[in-house]
Amino acid sequence: MFNWAASIGSFKFPACSLGLRFKPVTPCRVADTRNANGPFGGPFLTGGSARGFAIPSSACGIPTTAQAYSVNMTVVPHGTLGFLTVFPCGQTQPLASTLNSIDGRVKAAAAIVPAGTNGSICNFVTNDTDLVIDINGYFVPATDATALAFFPLTPCRLVDTRLANGPLGGPSLVANTKRDLPLLSSPCNVPSAALSYSLNFTSVPRSPLGFLTVWPAGVPQPLVSTLNAPTAAVTANAAIVPAGTPNGAISVFATSDSDLVIDINGYFAPAAPGGLSLFNVSPCRVIDTRNPPGSPPFNGAMDVPVNTSGCDAPLSAQSFVINATVVPSGALGFLTLWPQGAPQPLVSTLNAIDGQVTSNMAIVPTTNGLVSAFGANPTQLVVDIFGYFAP
Fold it and tell me: What is the residue range of 284's domain?
């Protein structure tokens, strides 16, 4: 059996002392191996091998100055898929996973991936699978005055269509119908200066959901997807979404009737006091509760000491870019991550109601180098760090 959550090995990103800042793009499809053979089409990925995609050479208008990409990876496995690992081409493949599909279902995962040789990102899979890559933005050196800084927020619930009808409440999404959500009207203190949002989407489908697409309101729906729930399981995925018009709205489209929950953990806006830059770190395992005594057991609640884990996360870090993986012994319900020292917010980071091994990327604010974790039911917890935001 593949040890898809193995410890992270030695892996170094190029240093960038000034950090990186964000440039959003309208979500765009970079690659789809289900299409005809080509640099961004077929053939499908072969198990046990890696394939690279030169992002600046795609049709999405990404410049060669980009040093990292905000992407959404979707696998369409040909059977069981142990894991997919995405990493910068030209670097050693890390012992980490971007997503898992043990049961062979279509699955999506967000990732922030540094650019490799010729701007390429490489993709290793344990088993044969098709792969779809969408992009919603990229990071450039902070010296670019037009790039956006990151401003963290205590995780906050923006939208929940299970609640009473309203601009950010019910009714549920109707199949094959677009709905605009005016996020600046929420109680989450998102300012009008926000030009992109760092969000977590959770779908609660009424039936199998082919896909959910999210994009900035006021522009045509792009040919991309944000998450998939083909078995009708409650499913979460993170995404950075550009703000649209009017009122900073985003548009959502679902192929089947579904409720939708949206949480926010920060936003990107023009440089101002309090704005942060992205710093990549070597992928590093912060905690793995399956491996005592180095990691304490996870009994449903714990504080995770990211800054003292030996993972190059300094005290200056004000948000961590992490991947959380749960290995439930049964139905988990949900996992929530939030800044230690703050009250637990009414948000969720991922869901595993069906008891499947599940991962999700999260940008989690911190004030003291620690992150709190809560699991609704017993599970093993693995937390890896891939970067941080700091002044």
Answer: 277-390
Q: How many domains does the chain have?
A: 3
Rounded Cα distance between 107 and 323, Å, is: 15
Q: Measured between alpha carbons, how far is 343 from 164 in angstroms, rounded to an integer?
A: 25
Question: Is residue 11 assigned to a domain?
Answer: no
- Dihedral sign, Cα of residue 68, residue 72, residue 78, residue 81: positive
**What confidence score (pLDDT) does residue 3 get?**
39
Q: Tell me the pTM.
A: 0.93
Cα–Cα distance measured from residue 360 to residue 29, given in angstroms and rounded to the nearest whole number: 21
| 8-state DSSP, 19 | -
293 shares a domain with 254: no
- Residue 201 neighbours by CB distance under 10 Å: 21
Nearest to 201 by CA among 165, 246, 254, 247: 254
Tell me how far CA of residue 322 lies from CA of 25, 54, 81, 97, 230, in angstroms: 23, 25, 22, 12, 26
- CATH code for the domain in which residue 102 is found: 2.60.120
Q: What is the mean pLDDT of the chain?
A: 92
d(CA 111, CA 194): 21
Lookup result for tokens 């999260």:
362
For residue 173, being part of any structural domain is answered with: yes
pLDDT digit string, tens, across residues 300-327: 899 999 988 888 899 999 999 999 999 8
What's the CA gap between 151 and 9, in Å, rounded? 31
Asked if residue 238 belongs to a domain, the reply is yes
- Give, rounded to a whole angstrom, the gap between the first and last alpha carbons of the chain: 42
